[in-house]
Hints:
By secondary structure, this protein is α+β, with helices and mostly antiparallel strands. Helix content is 16%, strand content 21%.
Amino acid sequence: MRKIWSAAGLAAAVLAIAACGSSASSSSIPPAAGASSPAASSSATTLKSTTINGTTVLTNAAGFTLYWFAPDTSTASKCTGSCATYWPPVKGPATAGSGVTGTLATITRPDGTTQATYNGHPLYTYAGDTAPGQAKGNGLNVSGGVWHEVAVSGSAGPASSPSASSGGYGY
């Protein structure tokens, strides 16, 4: 019986990943239902900088890495529906904490909620990051484009250009 449930759980995970329209493989699988999520772990929308894997990145108050999505613009999020389940938008407005020197602002999402931005990039966490200090979503090409951790270097924005190639399926 245990093998049947394991196979069913694996099948559900595969279907969930397929729903995001992955165009690149990844070893990161989002946490199971009921598991802690980066968005739920944040007690406030205060942003700070933290060094993860040798890079100083923007994190939420709980220490979860923040990401930007290549297809987004400074005024619009392209991650909606099931995409936003795996890449929860950071609710705005946000306040600058320790080490945050860039420009914080907000955009209005298609569903009417407010999302925080940093140097013109809408911000997200990643459901696959199950503990502070992880950056499992960096470089993933899923949900119609590439995801990047938000690198903090002085007053500069993210390390990579938002014009990075995108692929997969859009939402």
